[in-house]
Amino acid sequence: LTAMGESSMDPAQQDSLFSMMDVFLISLIIGLFTYWFFFRKKKEEVPDLPKMQSVVAPVRDSSFIEKMKKTGRNIVVFYGSQTGTAEEFANRLSKDAHRYGLRGMAADPEEYDLSDLSRLSEIDKSLAVFCMATYGEGDPTDNAQDFYDWLQEADADLSGLRFAVFGLGNKTYEHFNAMGKYVDKRLEELGAQRIFELGLGDDDGNLEEDFITWREQFWPAVCEHFGVEATGEESSIRQYELVVHTDVNMNKVYTGEMGRLKSYENQKPPFDAKNPFLAQVTENRKLNEGGERHMMHLELDISNSKIRYESGDHVAVYPANDSSLVNQIGEILGTDLDTVMSLNNLDEESNKKHPFPCPTSYRTALTYYLDITNPPRTNVLYELAQYATDAGEQERLRKMASSAAEGKALYLSWVVEARRNILAILQDMPSLRPPIDHLCELLPRLQARYYSIASSSKVHPNSIHICAVTVEYETKTGRLNKGVATNWLKNKVPEQNGSSSLVPMYVRKSQFRLPFKPSTPVIMIGPGTGIAPFIGFIQERAWLKQQGKEVGETVLYYGCRREREDYLYREELARFQKEGVLTQLNVAFSRDQAEKVYVQHLLKKNKENIWKLIDEGLAHIYVCGDARNMARDVQNTFYEIVSEFGSMSQPQAMDYVKKLMTKGRYSLDVWS
């Protein structure tokens, strides 16, 4: 039919059709040619793209190997540090290197690609040292988390790497020096060569002495390994140079900010350690009714901060030193504390340009940035000794900084046990008058203080509560020493729009968490201010109950000295018990009778009930407070309960409790 139809067209129609076809074909050819032409042009431009990309997005210089080669270093000292001590030790070791004709650099593992460790052998006489602190329950510090993850997953060949590890830990904790031990073991497994034995520092004893003892044996081992000798250069080498600003724009001067200049005037989330939020204190009340101590409950307003927290998290606060101590240091050194200055790193390649935010005034540095209340470490005494004009005082300082047994004993008694801070040392050594800029270079950074949050975000989404006791004691020299943060917080009185009641803070996440199922029973043990996280836990369980959720048994073991003196949150606990949220409230008053009664004694009284909750109810156990005595005694009590009612031997019972910890059913939030 179609063919018949086509053949039946007249010639005029056919001519018309062919002319239309011609136009169509020509248009199509032109279109295809044009498309091909432009497409081909684009293809020719493609090779230029990688060049453009390389200009736009340069690779981040995260190679410590390249930096070491560029600056002629052969020793790198990595630090995993939470409170600054491991960083300080790393700096001391890197400075030591020059005495042996070597050059060292301290490095934050967070800033570099640690897989480059396999390339360290490219550098002659190269060595990697690791100063690793253990944090929490055997965890790496925040800045060493990526390094720890890499070590766990790495299958790198580190056979050319020479290394040594010094761990910083505390024997009162369950996982003593876990991070240092792990790094030492894992590097060897990956083929690296250990050139000196693992050092285990104990902060419950004398961490400084442990470090010095290790360091004094470490360097001879390095010398022997590389065939080098000490150069005899014991002279003090300044790391920073002083620049005094006489004509400076005060808008460019730091006044206490931790990171960004003017960050306290122009607050921007997210808030963290380098960008704290200024929270208004809305409540500050004394909790105890008597006794010589001051226990307090504070509430910080976090409205509009976008800060989120969970029950069990910690709040970190940045305190300020007592202005009278700062003024006395200024007077004794004859310094105008309002002088604006910068301390600039003499090593231009260093990532750390200043020891603290600069430019700033000496007053700001001593108030917000430097630790002036803790006994100074031996390296500070060694560096300061040169400024003592009295030969006896100079010798005494040098002796305390030495590794000799007599020197260590003198440092322990005269500095550590007498709790002499830098002001006390200056007062007791009249000829010691160092330049204030060198003193500021040597003093460690003032660290944030952490408190277990005493509230639930379900009940108080815009507020974080703190429970704390002021620290105040008389030293062997008759001086009154005060805790920096607690005495600073004590004076934070709520005011309407008053700047004096602002607290720089941020939240640090914790593993101390309520069970996922509200119906799971909980056993909480927290004497003294150790009750803090449990106030949050109980608030949350009460809220869950109000939501119609089935809430399991909520059992609290609390302890204080006297019922009429320091029974914290008595009314709140009584209300929770009356409402049926707190199913058991057991309180030990240690000094209300002839024999002292502590929380572990009450646990023993109720051991059958406790075993039933653990064994049948699959209860979660939480312990908060003193690590040295209470947490250990409580753990031993659980060993006894498990052994007796679980019909297990002591080693089996210990293993059972350890497994509860591994499963997250026995959690600790302790301090020493």
From TrEMBL:
SUPFAM superfamilies: Ferredoxin reductase-like, C-terminal NADP-linked domain (SSF52343), Flavoproteins (SSF52218), Riboflavin synthase domain-like (SSF63380). Residues 274-515 form the FAD-binding FR-type domain. One of its GO terms (molecular function) is flavin adenine dinucleotide binding. One of its GO terms (cellular component) is cytosol. The keyword Chloroplast does not apply. It is an enzyme of class 1 (oxidoreductase). The chain crosses the membrane at residues 17-38. Keywords: Endoplasmic reticulum, FAD, Flavoprotein, FMN, Membrane, NADP, Oxidoreductase, Transmembrane, Transmembrane helix. Its cofactor is FMN; FAD. Its EC number is 1.6.2.4. Residues 75-219 form the Flavodoxin-like domain. The keyword Transmembrane applies. PROSITE patterns: FAD_FR (PS51384), FLAVODOXIN_LIKE (PS50902). InterPro entries: CysJ-like_FAD-binding, FAD-bd_FR_type, Flavdoxin-like, Flavodoxin/NO_synth, Flavoprot_Pyr_Nucl_cyt_Rdtase, Flavoprotein-like_sf, FNR_nucleotide-bd, NADPH_Cyt_P450_Rdtase_alpha. GO terms for biological process: response to hormone. PANTHER family: NADPH--CYTOCHROME P450 REDUCTASE (PTHR19384:SF17), NITRIC OXIDE SYNTHASE-RELATED (PTHR19384). HAMAP family: NCPR (MF_03212). This is NADPH--hemoprotein reductase.
